Automatic annotation (TrEMBL):
Molecular function terms, GO-annotated: catalytic activity; iron-sulfur cluster binding; metal ion binding
Residues covered by the Radical SAM core domain: 18-251
Name assigned to this protein: Radical SAM domain protein
Lineage, broadest ranks: Bacteria, Pseudomonadati, Planctomycetota, Planctomycetia, Gemmatales
Protein's UniProt keywords contain Iron: yes
Length: 280
């Protein structure tokens, strides 16, 4: 792992994140050791290493928390997406606690914060997360199958640990999103749909796994496309799954699902089972 001094920790949002209504992005790290086969971040210009090396390196902004202390004022009350090119709760965060430091610095400035992660480590910070007045934590759960997860996300946390984190967050009164993004092959669509409906996330997002011509991510990994073809999962399977999910509530697709939480919302009442209706 490389440690660097950074000059800023909040960057103006661009692309689908900007279109979704976010003003800022926040990336405590560059690179990501979760190593997802489909990761679009591997191809972004800020990564100066070849895409083939993606997943084998991470650079930490060692002064991230100090920067956040100094710069959080400029994002006060605005929509911040954490993180756009890395995972804020990848393994190195356990010891470095840069994400936690940024969160602590942000709390007094009341941003509308969205955290996007595959890392159950996010539940470590529930004490800080509860302090936000406008927050959503999005956990990525792209499949119901550990076998599929291992094929596409070999170094990311097991799915059940993510479910555990979702439950802990929700039990703490924190709004949570379930992101079936990109939607990987699903072993038992009906059972997965029922489990999600029973959990009743604040927001449910799906993202078809296809080549979008670079317009939106999750479509760029050649190895991921090869795996998908090998498993035999295609657009018709995706559509059937989404249609099944829609029987139980609202499903946002693609970038339409990545929008900030409502202003001044943080500790929320649990939604009624089967409804995803506090997201509009
Ligand atoms: S966790 Fe996110 S940033 Fe990390 S490799 Fe997977 S998709 Fe990319």
């Amino acid at each position: 792992m490389e440690l660097i001094e950074s000059r800023s920790i909040f960057s103006p949002a661009t692309g689908f994140i900007r279109r979704g209504g976010f003003e800022w992005t926040c990336n405590p790290y560059v690179g990501c050791t979760f190593s997802c086969a489909y990761c679009y971040a591997a191809y972004l210009p800020q990564n100066r290493r070849p895409p083939e090396e993606w997943g084998r390196w991470v650079t930490a902004k060692r002064n991230a928390a100090e920067l956040a202390e100094r710069q959080a004022r400029k994002v006060a009350g605005q929509a911040v997406y954490m993180s756009s090119v890395t995972d804020p709760y990848q393994p190195v965060e356990r010891s470095l606690m840069l994400t936690r430091g940024i969160l602590e610095a942000l709390v007094p400035h009341r941003p509308r914060l969205t955290i996007q992660t595959r890392g159950p480590l996010v539940s470590r910070d529930i004490d800080v997360l509860r302090e936000f007045r406008s927050l959503r934590v999005n956990l990525s759960l792209p499949t119901d199958s550990e076998r599929v997860r291992v094929q596409f996300e070999p170094k990311a946390p097991p799915l059940e640990k993510r479910w555990d984190a979702l439950s802990q967050l929700k039990d703490a009164g924190i709004a949570v999103g379930v992101c079936v993004t990109p939607t990987l092959p699903i072993e038992d669509p009906d059972a997965f749909a029922r489990r999600i409906a029973d959990f009743a996330p604040a927001v449910l997002v799906c993202q078809d796994f296809h080549d979008a011509g670079g317009r939106f991510g999750a479509d760029t990994g050649e190895e991921a496309r090869r795996l998908l073809a090998e498993i035999g999962w295609g657009p018709a399977d995706y559509r059937r799954f989404v249609d099944r999910l829609k029987r139980d509530g609202t499903v946002f697709e693609g970038e339409t699902g990545f929008f900030p939480p409502p202003a001044a919302q943080s500790v929320v009442a649990a939604p009624a089972p089967g409804l995803f209706d506090d997201c509009e």
